[in-house]
Amino acid sequence: MILSSINIFLLIFSILFYNDTFQLPEKIYDNTKIIELPPKGTKFGNKVSREVSIGEPLYHKWSCNYKNHHNSMYCIMVHNCTVSHSKDDSSNQIISIIDEFGCSYYPSIIPNIEYIDDLQGGLPVNAFSLDIDKPALFFQ
């Protein structure tokens, strides 16, 4: 008797799960933002729109823009990130900084990402350069 009840439960569960489809949203993410560390006692800093000096404290932020932020159906995981000097230069050296599991390859320079909630995460970092002769960095 118990065995048949379990089989019926599994059959009902399979039918309910199979018929319940989830509509995934198209492009729910914003581009990554680099912001200044917020002043003490405040929650958010300003987006960086100027040159920064090597060693200057910054906050690298990733977030998803989804209409219902309280919906726990979606979450983000930042992974496979790289840094380079240029987007277009053929002699460009691309360096992986975050692996496929979302862990930093260089935790003493770039710490692991801290997730604030399901749809946003970030990490504090000091500005750095790959080559002193090339002033710009591009993150992907």
What is the number of beta strands?
Answer: 7
Structural class, from helix and strand content? Answer: alpha+beta
Q: What sort of overall outline do the alpha carbons produce when their principal axes are compared?
A: globular
**Biggest sheet: strand arrangement:** 1-2-6-5
Low-confidence stretches: 1-20, 24-31
Briefly note the CATH topology name: Immunoglobulin-like
Distance between the termini: 58 Å
What's the gyration radius in Å? 21 Å
CATH second-level architecture? Sandwich
Helix content: 10-25%
- Whole-number total of structural domains: 1
Largest sheet: 4 strands, antiparallel
Order of helices and strands: HEEEEEEE
**CATH top level?**
Mainly Beta
The helix count comes to 1
CATH H-level superfamily = Zona pellucida, ZP-C domain
Strand content: 15-25%
Average pLDDT score: 68
Write up this protein:
By secondary structure, the chain is an alpha+beta fold. The chain has one domain (22-139): Immunoglobulin-like, CATH 2.60.40.4100. The chain is 13% helix and 23% strand. The model is unreliable at 1-20 and 24-31 (pLDDT under 50). This is ZP domain-containing protein.
